[in-house]
Write a structure and sequence with these properties.
alpha/beta; Rossmann fold; Ribosomal Protein S5, domain 2; 3 domains; nine-stranded mixed β-sheet; seven-stranded mixed β-sheet
Length: 444
């Protein structure tokens, strides 16, 4: 065995024989770390024979049905359930509920064989205590604290489980790589072996991953490219709501979400988020506006709250919670330039009620109406929802999937829905509740 030294970028995995201040691959600074690789001096083994080539459409499908997790919101996010042989990665902030969700899923998943839960962060006693608190009753769950990837693959081959959960992938290591667990080389090697095992055995594997301070899964981006599905568990620890968002799915739609509420006995499904967010507080005060947003294939109504007050300093404040700060500045500039609203002399605070985050432009019209309502201190009409994107000229632009948004507003008892003028009215829209506008000025 012969050792050699490499410098590897911890952001993208770029390798260099010498240390570099700036990575040529991702242009990041000070990301190179020294690693020692062990190179075998023995003769290489003969390569194994290639797998047989078959005609794609003529091959009989042995098992194509999905496995239900027993949790409707999780099944929705996955596109209908777990696909055999798939590798699913779940990332999220510490304490957001990733391990809790995995244990609850193992308690309800519809599998015939045994289930293996691998934890490199907690002991058997710690996992047992959490399982008792969550009311886990599934007797087929086995536990292992193995973190050596080669030993773990051997263990999986012996036990042949029906489902595997690894919490977390950053704790795994390969003995042939002399670097700490969680390193780029360790992550890439361990994830590659797990993916190969899942495809060969047709056993689905869940990987729990840590996230960086930027909110991305720790490790090189290639880690997300290797797996089949990537989901992020989002939410503010100050609120009870949690959103499971799918950002990559080879077997279903992306940007699908599942909504949960953290309770004393674990995560609870939220089947109707609109009623939940609106039932918290349906006050009619200045600065409140209702908008209909789409998260994946699901429409729901949320409240935008704005507070506009005269500034006490030379530079007015701009604070946005739950919406993009740059988007807020753009809308303020449009309102001040096109409609002569003096926001330049006021502090502006905007937040999405309930601790949610939205990033689609269909909420622009509702944000503008909330800002103007707070600035001029008047209440918007009760039971009115706003849908529309705002252009740089103050015009209200078309949005996608308008019919579904309007139907959701009608189902929740909205009396009026304001939509863009250029939208074609559908027969599915409730009669008498749709009002079309071409610009913000028509509503003022």
């Amino acid at each position: 065995m012969k050792a050699h030294t490499l410098f590897v970028c911890q952001n993208c995995g770029f390798e260099s024989v010498k240390w570099l201040g700036k990575c040529p691959g991702c242009q990041a600074w000070s990301t190179f770390a020294e690693e020692t690789r062990i190179r075998s001096t023995k003769e290489k083994k003969k390569s194994r024979s290639a797998k047989p080539v078959v005609t794609l459409l003529d091959r009989p499908v042995e098992s194509y049905s999905r496995i239900s997790t027993g949790i409707n919101e999780l099944d929705r996010t996955l596109g209908g359930g777990i696909v055999q042989g798939s590798v699913i990665m779940i990332g999220g902030d510490p304490g957001i509920g990733k391990s809790t969700l995995m244990l609850q899923m193992l308690n309800t998943v519809k599998t015939e064989g045994d289930i293996l839960y691998v934890s490199g962060e907690e002991s058997w006693t710690q996992v047992y205590m959490r399982a008792r608190r969550l009311g886990i009753e599934q007797k087929k769950i086995s536990f292992s604290a193995e973190t050596d990837i080669e030993a773990l693959i051997g263990l999986l081959g012996e036990r042949n489980p029906a489902l595997v959960v690894i919490d977390s992938v950053q704790t795994l290591f390969h003995s042939g790589i002399e670097s700490i667990p969680g390193n780029v080389s360790q992550l890439r090697t361990c994830a590659g072996l797990i993916v190969q095992y899942a495809k060969d055995s047709q056993v689905p594997v869940f990987l729990v991953g840590h996230v960086t301070k930027e909110g991305n899964i720790a490790g090189p981006k290639v880690l997300e490219h290797m797996v089949d599905t990537v989901m992020y568990f989002e939410g503010d620890t100050q609120y009870d709501f949690r959103i499971l968002r799918c950002t990559k799915n080879r077997f279903g739609p992306i940007n699908e979400i599942g909504i949960f509420q953290m309770g004393a006995s674990g995560l609870e499904e939220v089947a109707n988020p609109s009623e939940l967010f609106l039932s918290v507080e349906r006050s009619d005060q200045s600065g409140d506006a209702l908008v209909v947003v789409m998260e994946g294939n699901r429409p729901f109504i949320i409240k935008i709250q704005a507070l506009v007050t005269k500034t006490q300093f030379g530079m007015p404040q701009r604070t946005a919670t739950g919406i993009d700060h740059k988007r807020l500045n753009l809308l303020l500039a449009v309102l001040e330039k096109k409609f002569r609203k003096p926001f330049g002399f006021h502090d502006v605070f905007v937040k999405v009620a309930g601790g949610l985050s939205i990033n689609e432009p269909a909420a622009d019209l509702g944000i503008c109406m909330a800002l103007i309502s707070s600035l001029e201190d008047f209440k918007l009409p009760a039971g009115t929802a706003y849908i529309g994107e705002i252009g740089l000229g103050g015009e209200v632009r078309k949005v996608s999937r308008l019919d579904e948004r309007v139907r959701e507003a009608g189902r929740l008892g909205m009396q009026q829905v304001v939509i863009p003028l250029l939208e074609r009215k559908s027969a599915d829209m409730p009669k008498g509740m749709v009002r079309k506008v071409s610009s913000v000025g028509e509503l003022l």
